[in-house]
Amino acid sequence: MNPVNNKRVIIEGVWPEIDGGRFPAKRVTGEKVTVEADIFSDGHDEISAVILYKKAGEKGWREACMKLLVNDKWEGVFTITDLTAYYYTVEAWADPFKTWQKDLKKKLDAGQDVKMDLLVGIGLMEKTIGLASVKDAKRLKEFMDIIKNDKTRSGDKAVPVIFSDDFTSLMFSYPDRSGATRYDKELEVAVDRPKALFSTWYEMFPRSCGSGPGKPGSFKTCKTMLSEIARMGFDVLYLPPIHPVGKKNRKGKNNTVIAQKEDPGSPWAIGSEEGGHKSIDPSLGTIKDFQDFMEEAGKYGIEIAMDIAFQCSPSHPYIKEHPEWFKKCPDGTMQYAENPPKKYEDIVPFNFESDKWKELWEELKSIVLFWIEKGVRIFRVDNPHTKPFNFWEWLIKEIKKDYPDAIFLAEAFTRPKVMHRLAKLGFTQSYTYFTWRNKKYELTGYLEELTRGEGREYLRPNFWPNTPDILPEYLQYGGRSAFLARLILAATLSSNYGVFGPEYELCISNAIAGKEEYLDSEKYEVKNWDWNNPDNLRDIIARVNRIRRENPALQTTWNIKFHDVDNELILFYSKKTEDLSNIILVAVNLDPHHRQSGWVKLPLNEFGLDLGESYLVHDLLSDDKYIWKGESNYIELNPFIVPAHIFCVKNRLRRETDFDYYM
Amino acid sequence: MNPVNNKRVIIEGVWPEIDGGRFPAKRVTGEKVTVEADIFSDGHDEISAVILYKKAGEKGWREACMKLLVNDKWEGVFTITDLTAYYYTVEAWADPFKTWQKDLKKKLDAGQDVKMDLLVGIGLMEKTIGLASVKDAKRLKEFMDIIKNDKTRSGDKAVPVIFSDDFTSLMFSYPDRSGATRYDKELEVAVDRPKALFSTWYEMFPRSCGSGPGKPGSFKTCKTMLSEIARMGFDVLYLPPIHPVGKKNRKGKNNTVIAQKEDPGSPWAIGSEEGGHKSIDPSLGTIKDFQDFMEEAGKYGIEIAMDIAFQCSPSHPYIKEHPEWFKKCPDGTMQYAENPPKKYEDIVPFNFESDKWKELWEELKSIVLFWIEKGVRIFRVDNPHTKPFNFWEWLIKEIKKDYPDAIFLAEAFTRPKVMHRLAKLGFTQSYTYFTWRNKKYELTGYLEELTRGEGREYLRPNFWPNTPDILPEYLQYGGRSAFLARLILAATLSSNYGVFGPEYELCISNAIAGKEEYLDSEKYEVKNWDWNNPDNLRDIIARVNRIRRENPALQTTWNIKFHDVDNELILFYSKKTEDLSNIILVAVNLDPHHRQSGWVKLPLNEFGLDLGESYLVHDLLSDDKYIWKGESNYIELNPFIVPAHIFCVKNRLRRETDFDYYM
How far is B387 from chain A (nearest CA, A)? Predict the structure, then answer.
């Protein structure tokens, strides 16, 4: 082993560092990166540490100071400004001047003779003068002369200079970093546009937007829905696959194996003689119609999210053109998808490990690029966990190289490690278990895990109370109040959320008995919704989404904090901006059947409020205002009206002492 | 990015992996290494995984099976047999046969037609036959023929074969691992001899072992102590530095700055005109005397541990011979050690960063080698945290390359991260904060941290209730009972422990007021102890150490488990061997002033005991025996007799049904 005598400072435990640097941390432009590291040296030397960071393509490092927190843990921060990868590492060094200053102070405090120490300090100053600019060197010399001329035992004239801000900051400007330790990895931040962190999704089957019974919808008829979707405040409209639907083995209503003539089939059974993944179902329109629709949506501030489902119906053109991309049964027939004992006869999976896998992978990439060229930038990826991780990592890297604004939502309702891996390897957002978390301890535990666990650095949650595949039991049994509570929870716990509508706003709750499947699921039939049912939730959805748009505290997920309530059925939490200019408190009655009340407890100091003073909380849902005082305040939530408060905390209330004529 | 289509299985979260593999995990020969990893694949395939491991120098890997625990976490175990480095990694693969078996079972359970599945299976068998030995291929073919000839819908004849142990284990013997994922790091285990994990230390100043007042001890007089040290059950005798003590700036009694003529000085102020780190203080004897002493100790099963204090007195020969290894003050005088405002005028530190650092480091290494050649293998290293980490890492690696049986105990009572770094870089054992942990929550919390935290893999604790520098307040105020309780805690919580004697067994508790320093500390004066004071603790120390020797459960630290007692002043814990052949329960009264009693609660199932049956607990300290029954049992501990029980759990008690003539 070769001995090394410099680099006395140790840097370890750097965070974020995902899987030893194998994967980047994630941020959107405008977000900060807080870097932590354990930094220490032998002996008693004082240490200085900086984050070194740069944008992709930059040669030189920028620097951000780190400060010691506790137990040798240091922290620093830098801000992401551009839509490009960032790199960072940590550098630290033992600082002789800082050490000397600290020791001198201790000796002075103990009344010791410091004449020799001043001489040592002058040596350090002389070195620094050698490194300094002409101007700074001149100033340092002036300071040094005062110190040199002080011959007193306790440095009476020198000491005020030595501890002055002017002198200290000059000395700090020219540290000797020749023995500095640089952390041995350069770590990456993958950067997305802000929508990756703050997005409001609406999922809708375009074929159900027809003009009446027996008249399926098309992109043209869908256009008429856009104003209402925009009024409700959604900014991403996600469409299930819009490609030609397979005819062979098409599923009928309620997933029956034999379809009737009029059954439209599941849109996830992609491909027929009318085309495959690069085609549009002719009943929906042409590619031009789709582009017109996207353009119209854009006028309403709505982006279209496309479904990526890499699988085929048995009538997909690929089956004939590229039989080598599929698995065959020993009898030569096509091997349908299955998850024993379940069978998906209307779907044939790709064989990602076929001998021609390279051609297959390239073709799949070309599908994504095809739609990107048509203007799509958001993709909701169907069951990514049933295709190789390596494939996704390669595909997303390839796409984002040229299209850094592309967003991929992973629809993987699977085991935790698998979901995390997909997020790490590049998916921009992830579906979550929120769909099944109803109780207070489940929600607080899960949100703590999402926002304080390692995944906070790379897994951006997107909360969905329902999907075409999942009508949770809470919604099946809880009635309108359950739909309201789950919407408000999704919209305020997570800055990314979505609903599958119009099932959601119409509070559709009929399930197949004992299952979480919608009865008469829209997956297998064209619906003709009563869009104007007076019981619909559209107004309150619009209000919740407006509250999200108008309150920056709700535009990130990472700032969630739960607070105590003396009632297990009320969930109470806050979100606030760092500068406290926007503080939101949310209380939700988790019991859809009964009125619940309780005393909530606020950490006033964290909100910049005084214990003794009154303050105003403004319920942005009801527009009611309440005067609160102190830490504990009473709330009551009636599920048959609105099962939640979304309070904005206003400044403290004015008192007599504020009145113009008081003094 | 280049696409990769094999290696579908992901291996991450491998543990132990210290700092990303930068440092090895540690074991002694005979210990097991439990390797964990998160292993999963896309899709629903069944996975197989193995640990690959080998000894240094071996080319091929050995294999140990891993099994799935929960949540995609897998675990496997291998055993260290030789005193050499081991390497390990993990390999895993999707297993088509296992997957096929699993899916077939599900389909059979659902009553589906499996004819096609049997054909698929036959394809897998044919592949395996191609890989198998002639003998196994023949057997597999016989099985395959039965399966082939079965034309029934539900494989009536095939199924019993397919799920038979014979067939399954044959198929498992030839997995297709061509697409296997190998974890991308080879991780190391640093291996020590068993004494690194189980050692019983006694620290003693040889100069205080004289034959009477005014007659300082020497190695010759020390020999007479060996039988008593051996009777007390210690197997490591650690001597403070035995080199010539500095005369310049020698410290007097109680650390006074000016020594009297008869004051012997602190042995850590090493070096005088009589020699330095490679010499023996002439008043103790010659190198030959030292070797004789070591040899004599060996006869009693006692190893001598030498103190390594890399610092000099101002009269050390190095000061003149190698002034370049030391720092000078601006006035040209030698710079003494200090930790402002404290000054250590009798000590001059080495300058590890001097221009001649390489020569210095080599010289320091030569000191260790000098004593190794004289027969020393255990070193207690003084204040390693005030010398560069790089130096220690280099030194210990260099020494252990040729002397893998060398043991280095780090005397670093400093911040947690620093102590952990020293352990990681190579120190065999570490002093701990045990010295200051007295309360139940402190002891349980600290032991949980030591044995369940990451340090469990690399930091071997050595518990010391006192040292020449530390007489903790608990011992100052708690009397004889406190000494007994702390000894028993150290000896049973940690498999490595030591005491500084005869201060310990004589219950010396006079401190400098308000400090943890011994009053009239042995560091600065020759003592003449009343070895035979009738109040001494020698008999009980001997008993405790005999219990340690006779009970393998106490010979490791990693098996500690705390159990409930309904009294905050009683600590109750167990240690057991894996095969349950030795189960030890320890209850300690932490209150040195009052009798304490309580109900202890035992997890009987973990001990292989039945809830309903009686069992015997034998107190190895008092030799009393108690019949216990069920989970809760009563104990009472009188600090004025012995403040602890060390129970050995015996088999369940015999009952009438066990009696010969009962049936």
Answer: 6
CB neighbours of A169 closer than 8 A, spacing ≥ 6?
none
Length of chain A: 663
Owner of token pair 């096509």: A334
ipTM score of complex: 0.95
**For A333, which residue in chain B has the nearest alpha carbon?**
B116
Any B CB within 8 A of A398 CB:
yes
Q: Chain A contacts of B113, Cβ < 8 Å?
A: none
Handedness of CA B321, B326, B327, B329 (dihedral sign): negative
CA distance B205 to chain A (A): 27
Largest alpha-carbon pair distance within chain A?
105
SS3 B588: strand
- Whole-number Å distance between alpha carbons of A351 and B483: 71
CA dihedral sign, ordered A497, A503, A504, A508 = negative
pLDDT mean by block of 10 residues, chain A; 663 residues: 83 98 98 98 96 97 98 98 98 96 96 94 95 96 95 93 95 93 97 98 97 92 96 98 97 94 96 98 98 98 98 97 95 90 94 94 98 98 97 98 98 97 98 98 98 98 98 97 98 98 96 96 95 90 98 98 98 96 97 98 92 90 95 97 96 71 72
Upstream peptide bond of A16 is cis (omega within 30 degrees of 0): yes
Q: Show residues of chain A in contact with B123, CB under 8 Å.
A: 330
C-alpha A268: how far from chain center: 27
Contact A417, B71 (CB under 8 A): yes
CA A389 to chain B, closest CA, distance in angstroms equals 7
Q: What does DSSP assign to residue B659?
A: S
HSE-CB of B193 using CA atoms within 13 angstroms = 11
Contacts of A331 in chain B (CB under 8 A): 116, 119
What is the distance between the alpha carbons of residues B61 and A49, in angstroms, rounded to a whole number? 43
Helices (H), A79-202: 96-109, 115-131, 134-149, 158-162, 165-173
Bridging pattern class, strands B407-411 and B429-431: parallel
* DSSP one-letter code for B334: B
Cβ neighbour number for residue A329 with a 10 Å cutoff: 13
Asked if A20 reaches chain B (Cβ–Cβ under 8 Å), the answer is yes
Contact B638, B590 (CB under 8 A): no
Give the three-class secondary structure for A367. helix
Burial (CB count within 10 angstroms: exposed 0-12, middle 13-18, buried 19+), residue B201: buried
Residue type, B351: N
Dihedral sign computed on CA atoms, order A271, A276, A280, A286: negative
